[in-house]
## 1
Amino acid sequence: MEGVLLLNKPAGMTSHDCVAKMRRLAKTRKVGHTGTLDPDVTGVLPICLGRATKIVEYLTAATKTYEAEVTIGFSTTTEDASGEIVKEQSVQSPISEEKVKLVLNSMVGTIEQVPPMYSAIKVNGKKLYEYARAGIEVERPVRTITINELVLLGDVHNEGNLTKFRFRVTCSKGTYVRTLAVMIGEKLDYPAHMSHLIRTKSGNFRIEECLTFEEIESAIENDQLQSKLLPIGKALYDLPKLKIHDNLAEKVKNGAVLELPSEFKDIEVGAPIVVYDDDDRCLAIYAKHPTKINMMKPTKVLLNEA
């Protein structure tokens, strides 16, 4: 059993819970996820099985797309609906669609974001949520993130003393969408929090391709799970690709240092080059050698004779 499983993560489970469940279902310890989703968040969570666990790091750097709902009128400790109310301010007059669009447009591009206290980022070797649970406020590192797209979805709903609306965001790795919701509220001069979130895309993986746990269990019962997994090579297909002939394949399988092809002369040191054989099997991931000019070295050997 090996490949990348595209899971439609259910609400109420941590990413670690999903990995633990897949270990039981697939009867293997070699399972890993490609990026944490909070328990209340649903949507695309690629999970690697078998030798595919070697490529986890190459599936976590991609941009992500989310659809979220923001509630204007009160903020919470966790910046989402699960936290305790921190500040309330009734929305006295309706917020217009035009004003919301102006705020969203102003946040597209490279911006700075302070991660929430209830997050897994480490400060002085300790996770922020551990400080938060102990009632300790610490200085959080400012992060630079990229917002590629931030658009309003549907209407702006003014409901009593609250205002709600949905938005779609495509953003860089490390973006906290619940913090974006808080930032949107600040620009509208109100406390706010994220009241719903679904990840619809992770890199090239779309929610339409994902399976629920019920569908996975059905596939296992019918001995069809392997056919539902993305092969390693296909999962990496958007990375730079090098096809080699059989006479080099054995050297690659043995982790040999090779000459860097001319088309990759300008690639950055450390940037991945995925090596395939004539049968389009993914053999290894190479990178420009840090010290040997015009050479490349393996960072991961994915297929060998073992």
## 2
Amino acid sequence: MTKQLTRERIIQAALILFKDKGYAATSTRKIAEKAGVNHLTLFRHFENKSNLFRESVVHHVTSSHFFDGIKEKLTENLREDLTLIAKVYLEENIDKNSVFWVYLTEAAQDPEVSELIMEIPKHLNDFLSAYLSKLHDHKKISNGNFQMISNMFFSLLNQYIMFHRFPAFHHTFPDSIEEFVVECVDLFQTKLEKDVPF
């Protein structure tokens, strides 16, 4: 087995176990066992559990594949692009709401998990903030705190992901992703296109 294949098997095993059991309850021994590798082999590739969590869970949510797939479709039309980003993000993560709850619970109790989990919004916010800065440079949107705006944008999407299966959710939120995305994009478009410099 090549080093790359071994590494991929460990990452896939870790992804499954971290999602099923959470960070604290998943041991590196269990991951090595599921991947069919020696425990020492796992440490040679990743050194510790936090590095493995970063490469499996964090990179899975904010992978270059996720960003590259979106980047090549961006047109610098704010409405179209925010709609695309929101839809792709929701479709990728809508069935992971139970995982979100597991990690949030653990993050509240474990500073290490909290630090690792916070890498996810950082990658997302950096991506969207850079896009908005580019639009501003091209005089297509007004100025603003693009990091904060990006944080708020993904926070709304994450709220939808986390709560959409609660029965009471449907009293205040639309049933369809499309309807939610339209309202969300309207909100941010109104803010970002206010006083556009021409």
## 3
Amino acid sequence: MNRVAFIFTFILLPISLIQGQNPTVSSKPDSKWQLVDDLSDEFDSDKVDWKKWFQNSNLPNTTGWKWNNESNVKINNGVAELTMRHNENNLSDNGTYFKSGILKSKGRFTTGYVEARIKGAVIDVPGPKNGYGVCPSFWLYSDFDRTVAEGKTVYCEIDVVELQQFDWFDGHQDDIRDTDHNLHLVKKIDGKDVWFRPKQHEETQLNKYRLNDDPSQNYHVYGCEVNENEIIWYVDGVEIARKPNTDWYRPMHVTASLGLRRPFVKFFDNANRAVNPLEDEEAKKQLGGMPTTMFVDYIRIWKKK
């Protein structure tokens, strides 16, 4: 290597090491953060680092679709691509008709800061329903522990962001620019699992935000600070919501996934249930947009020094 090239490399190297060592923004700008390598991924290799992520086992239970990471997760030019595919010939797999990709961390997160740069998933069909039918998500969730004491948390979930849900709430139909940043909880009450859902507990669990553009066409940075007292959400470095952290203290897996939403599933009995897309007229119209892919540029997790 000649002298000029050596100096050039020497100058660039520290810059590349410095990038990504601090959250885009936090509640206390003077906080000192340390990147958690086991939970973070720049996706700068040509293959998924399955030492960090579960490939086949320990994936979340789903009733509306199946996971298949071999076919639906890949790295392309430094970006993780998670794809949702319609089963060939509409073949039923235990009553489901789609398979998708998911990145679920083997390590766990309790308090700190999580951040990902994500572009959603296009479903390119005629009319106003581009993106309608899938939900690109970045979220944290715990395992279930039913040995906890009465009144304690059995399961907790923090949705850093859910895109493209086209949710209907309080007389309003969301469009593709509306995003959800919610909390889910299961507590032991009278010895039983009791779910606390966002729409039932709007003040303590539900957050909505409206982007200035279409997230299936553009990248945005979605972040969340979790401390002992509060949970604080950020989009592109701007705080958009905060809630008291009363019950979200169980160790959680860091997860990015592409799930189904209406019209490919219907929510009842506390789960998204599969719809046969060839027997539902609305779902059939959206099939032309399959397969579809969400894009994750990076996932970065920090803890306070």
